[in-house]
Structures are given as C-alpha cells and as structure tokens.
Amino acid sequence: MPDTTADGAPVQETPEEELARLRNQVYQGELELEAQRRASYIIAEQLAAATRARAPAPAEPKRRNYAAEPTAFDGDRSKGRAFIRQCWLHMQGKPEDFRTDNDKILFILSWMKLGAAAVWAGNVTQQFMDGDDPYPSLVDFEADFARNFILTDEA
C-alpha cells in the first residue's frame, strides 16, 4: 500500500526517490533472474549426467568378414570336408551372426542346395519346421553330416 499523508493523500515521490525505487526493482529482478539461471544450469547438468549414465556404450565398429561364403554343396562326399570348412571359416568371421548352434546349423543347411545334399537338408529343415530339434548341438549335426557326406577315410 502506498504511503499517505496525515490527510490520506498519497505521498509524492521525488524524481530521485522514484529512480532509486525503480533501480531497486530492477536489481531485485536481476537477482531473481540470476537465481533462475543457476537453477536451470543445475537441472541441465543433472539431466546431462543422467543421460550419460544411461547412454549405451558406443558400438564397436562392425568387423569386416573376409571369409567368403561357402560354395553351394551338392552332396559329393569328396567335397564334404571342404564344404564344412568353408562354412566354419565364414561363421568364425561373423560371430555376431552365429551366436547359437542352431544359427550355425541353419546356415550350413541353407548352402546344401544341390543334389543329395538338398534332399538331406530338406528333410532336416522339415524336422525344424515341425518343431523338432533334430540336433542338440553343432557337434551332433557335424557327426551326422560326416556320416552322410564325408568319405570314411577322411572322417
């Protein structure tokens, strides 16, 4: 409430008093603004720290796989060992793509595209499609592959 005289009339400020009052208001406004800036800065720092804490580690650059894809296999027993080695080399070059034995088995089956190999792979694939898991491990698959497609003196 503004100051008043004894008769209730408002007291008139001198120009110097008005200037001082206005300067004080500006100064108080600047103090409030500086407090808000500090609070905003603290909040921004906290947000940045929380974001850094949650950010995933940068992904490693994808390795280039220099191992060629295998040649389509036709079931020729004299080429069975070479085919399985080609598959192994390719899978070793892309470990992120072949994390499980089933990933590896399905990859090998997908390259058994011709002749007797295609028939055998088709039968195994059908077992997978029917919900069966014909091979508990890659070792079991490779043993069956060797019985069917690697010459006896090579196995």
Walk me through the structure.
The chain has 155 residues and is mainly alpha-helical. It has two domains: 43 residues; 73 residues, no CATH class. It is built from five helices and no strands. The longest helix is centred in the N-terminal third of the chain and has 40 residues. The mean pLDDT is 87. This is DUF4939 domain-containing protein. It comes from Exidia glandulosa HHB12029.
What is the domain total for the residues? 2
H/E series, N to C? HHHHH
What is the count of DSSP helices, taking H or I runs of 4+ residues?
A: 5
Radius of gyration: 39 Å
The largest sheet, given as strand count, sense and whether it forms a barrel, is:
none
Identify the overall geometry: rod-shaped
**End-to-end distance:** 104 Å
| Contiguous runs where pLDDT drops below 50 for at least 5 residues | none
> What class do helices, strands and sheet pairing give?
mainly alpha
> How much strand content do the residues show?
under 5%
Give average pLDDT, whole number.
87
Extended strand count: 0
Helix content: 55-70%
Structure summarized in a few sentences:
With 155 residues, this protein is mainly alpha-helical. It is 59% helix and 0% strand.
Topology diagram in text:
Elements (H helix, E strand, L loop, with lengths): L14 H40 L25 H14 L7 H10 L4 H15 L8 H12 L6
Protein name: DUF4939 domain-containing protein
Keywords:
single chain; 155 residues; mainly alpha; 2 domains; 0% strand; DUF4939 domain-containing protein
